[in-house]
Amino acid sequence: MNAPIPKKGVSGLGLDSMGDLSSLLDEPTQEPRDRGPLMIATDLIDEDPNQPRTQDNPGFRPESIAELAGSFGPKGPKTPLSLRDNEAVPGRYIINHGHRRYRAGKFKGLSVLPAFIDNEHDDDDQIIENIQREGQAPREIANAIGRKLAGGKKKKAIAERWGKSASWVTQYVTLLDLPEPIAVVFNNGRANDVTVVNELATAYKENPKAVEGWLSVPTQEITRGEVKLLREFLSEKNKDGGQHDPVTVDLGSGQTDTDGEAGEQEPGPKTGKEADSSKLKKAIVQVEHDGRPARLMLTRRPPAEGYAWLKYGDDGKEFEASLADVRLVAVLEG
């Protein structure tokens, strides 16, 4: 049986129904004008419980979150959140980056937030982002390094992964095991500079009592310059074996610390040139501090400009004080 012959003018491919092909080629391709991020329901997003920022981070203060929310437009933040699939709860997401934006979105009452899905994210990415924009407190960085070390990571590997030097990592590791007096001033915010804290820790190993006494002064500023002066003073003190200042003078008797041990000596005949009566052989500066008689310890290096070491005349206690709190009484010859 012969196959039917197609009618004239009709294509065997059925293309006759498509009309004029040239008209299709002339029509512009319709592409979406907005290729922005996904809009994810806010109530499907969970914060990462292991994020490096802690709850008391300044960026999480209510006023800081409110300020950030005020900067949002009607569609929320311009910078989308980075999310990953929540493997424990299918259909939900965990934040990689953007915890503050998420909290600000909730504060503003937004039902959806712009976001990208990045399932290749790891916890190092959070650390790197926050470090590079100086968004984390030293204690938080130290704790993150501690977790890495506990998990078997080496300091060198952490430094390479985070784009920092090995010495930088070592400085933060020091914060994990500080001597008690230094831990106190670090935790209460008196010392926030990581370099300063490390310098104090080194000085404490060499002379713990002196450093503890220095830190016990409530008005003592803890800066790089102040700590440098402290270390220089302790270095000089160690060189002379920690001997007492030979110019320590009792205000009642006028004797130095060494006079009593050597015993009084009768003055002998003078030889050579007579001493210049206009010059003091040894100056004793008598002062008053807190209503008590004291003297300046002239050979002890002050911790900073505007400070000096004093010794009370009634109980012999040595301490450092601001010269603004000292009243000059007399300058005598020792």
UniProtKB/TrEMBL annotation:
Comp. bias regions, Low complexity: 13-26
Family, per entry: Belongs to the ParB family.
InterPro entries in the record: Chromosome_partition/occlusion, KorB_C, KorB_C_sf, KorB_DNA-db, KorB_domain, ParB/RepB/Spo0J, ParB/Sulfiredoxin_sf, ParB_N
Chain intervals for the UniProt region annotation (Disordered): 1-84, 236-280
Organism: Massilia psychrophila
BP terms from Gene Ontology: chromosome segregation; negative regulation of DNA-templated transcription
Residue intervals of the ParB-like N-terminal domain: 38-131
Name listed for the protein in its UniProt record: Chromosome partitioning protein ParB
Membrane-traversing stretches: none
GO MF: DNA binding
CDD domains linked to this entry: KorB_N_like (cd16398)
GO cellular component: chromosome
